[in-house]
Design goal:
Elements lengths: L1 H13 L14 H7 L2 H18 L1 H15 L6 H12 L5 H9 L5 E8 L2 E8 L19 E5 L11 E5 L3 E2 L1
Antiparallel strand pairs: 1-2, 2-5, 3-4
Helix pairs in contact: 1-3, 3-4, 4-5
Length: 172
């Protein structure tokens, strides 16, 4: 419950146009200090949980083990973690490409789902809680790679989970 409360607080901050990305280049020490608020830590933890759910626990764990083995007693950056995950997925999923849409974009997407018979349509757009005129920018070009999981009437949530990667503005 505590973590969920932290996630909602981070999402509130991240839904403002004045938010910042989890990872970004910095030019000054002031910019470094601005980056180390709760947002990158809580959002980062949430993104890792999302990735673990999408890849499955075993695949995610194997990727972490490869990452720790490859970089023990050394320095690393976020690309190194995604590259380790890519080693485990054997090219079936570009984890780096997926995760960069989350860590390099500020904010998060609002996903709208509509059902028409057996067809499910999904659409994404950047979610903004409140527009701040002094900081307003149009981020219509933002497209996240959103891993969506779902179940159907032919299986239960605990026995079979289907996955769909929404990597465009909309999909069916």
């Amino acid at each position: 419950e505590d973590f969920l409360n932290l996630i909602f607080k981070a999402m509130m901050k991240d839904s403002l146009n004045s938010s910042h990305a989890v990872s970004s280049a910095v030019q000054s020490s002031e910019q470094i200090e601005e980056m180390f608020d709760a947002l990158p830590y809580i959002k980062g933890a949430s993104l890792l949980m999302m990735l673990k759910h999408y890849l499955t626990k075993d695949v995610f764990q194997a990727g972490i083990e490869v990452y720790l083995h490859n970089h023990n007693y050394g320095s690393a950056n976020s690309d190194d973690l995604w590259d380790s995950m890519n080693e485990i997925t054997n090219g079936t999923l570009d984890v780096k490409k997926l995760m960069k849409t989350w860590i390099l974009h500020k904010g998060f997407p609002l996903v709208t789902v509509a059902r028409k018979g057996k067809l499910i349509s999904v659409q994404q757009e950047k979610f903004l809680y409140r527009m701040e005129p002094e900081n307003w920018t149009l981020d219509a070009s933002y497209v996240w790679q959103i891993p969506l999981t779902y179940v159907t009437s032919s299986c239960s949530f605990t026995h079979c989970v289907n996955a769909y990667l929404l990597d465009q503005k909309s999909g069916t």
